[in-house]
Amino acid sequence: MDFSFTQDQETLRAHLNELLDEVCPPQYAERCDNEAHPPREAYEALGKHGWFGLIVPVEWGGSGGSAIELAILLEEAGRHFEELGTWLFRTLTYGGYAVLTHGTQAQKETLLPKLVRGELSVCFGLTEPHSGSDAAALTTKATAVDGGYVINGQKIFTSGMDISDYCVLVTRTSTGAKKQQGITNFLVDTRLPGIEIRKIKTMGTRAIGTTQVFYTDVKVPASAVLGEVDRGWEAVDAYLWYERLGLSAARTGAALAAFDYALEYAKTRKQFGRPIGQFQAISHKLADMKVMLDVARTLVYRFAWLMSQGKATRVDAAVVKLQTSEAYKAVSDMGLQILGGYGYCMEYPMQRFFRDSRLATIGVGTSEIQRNIIARGLGL
């Protein structure tokens, strides 16, 4: 489908693909997954070539790109390796967008130049063992002391904490009439004393994976506050919208890769004297996959355009997250079915798409929560 990209955007995509073909080929993604090795080499190569500065304003050394250029970057990174795309989105969302939007002048001066040079990795700490979908019910506490705060509590599913320099940490600094009140965000140095990181074994996304983090009397300076004290939930909401865009683009790229692999297999695998793609049972699956992916890509770039125009809504964010997550899950499932027994073998990449895609409808807001948001937007 023609998204009417500009010539500059098409050129950007072409240059990006040339680099990613070199630094993140399929065998590299397979090795990272098999060895639980973060795609650091590819991540650093993107930094070296200036891609981390894509959304950073020119005044800070970036190229001042819009949400549409960001979606292009993350879609193509995700198409080569989903976990590279998700690593990028975390740093660009929480090290870039969050700091640009709510950071102090000192925070911008400290972090943005490093971000542009690709020398920074940033993650996000929100979910807790007892506050998942009910995210605002968090209890990790930041207590004010002379010169700063002391943080105590624990987070779970803080993906990338073990490979990040900073974590945008969501804490409770006071208690209000509503649970969304009294929340404050911090830029926490991940190497501070009192932080214990435990890796969680997962079915998929094994290259980077996720962690549980324990904060015990972690002392942070007042300068670590990101945004306003006690009024951090609105900022978290804004970050999550940006996260919806980044994840949706990266996962749609991964779904496209799964589709391309299944399509090529259906054209070359022969049974009963002809390619299996000529059988209606297979061709209809591929037709359905094509439709789902066209819808997903359309919604990704529609949402990116809405964000670039300042017109995006909470419902728009939920729609794109729901559709792209469900499409990725369905496409990888049908792709595995098309490969049959080979799809179930670890030496073929379809099993990785299948495993990784299962997180899409669970993480960063379940599909059920997205449907709730959409239903409320309909006045239900």
What would a concise description of this structure say?
By secondary structure, the chain is α+β, with helices and mostly antiparallel strands. The protein has helices at 7-23, 26-35, 40-48, 67-80, 82-102, 105-116, 233-268, 280-308, 314-339, 350-357, 367-377, and strands at 122-125, 141-145, 148-156, 166-172, 183-189, 195-200, 210-221, 225-226, 270-271, 274-275. It is built from eleven helices and ten strands.
Commentary on this structure:
- The protein is of the alpha+beta class and about 375 residues long.
- It has three domains: about 5-120, Acyl-CoA dehydrogenase/oxidase, N-terminal domain (Butyryl-Coa Dehydrogenase, subunit A, domain 1); about 125-230, Butyryl-CoA Dehydrogenase, subunit A, domain 2 (Beta Barrel), CATH 2.40.110; about 235-375, Up-down Bundle (Butyryl-CoA Dehydrogenase, subunit A, domain 3), CATH 1.20.140.10.
- It has helices spanning about 5-25, 25-35, 40-50, 65-80, 80-100, 105-115, 235-270, 280-310, 315-340, 350-355, 365-375, and strands at about 120-125, 140-145, 150-155, 165-170, 185-190, 195-200, 210-220, 225, 270, 275.
- The strands form three sheets. Strands 1-4-5-8 form a four-stranded mixed sheet, covered by helices on one side. Strands 2-3-7-6 form a four-stranded antiparallel sheet, with no helix packed on it. The protein has a two-stranded antiparallel ribbon with strand order 9-10.
- Helix 4 (about 65-80) packs antiparallel against helix 8 (about 280-310) and helix 5 packs antiparallel against helix 7.
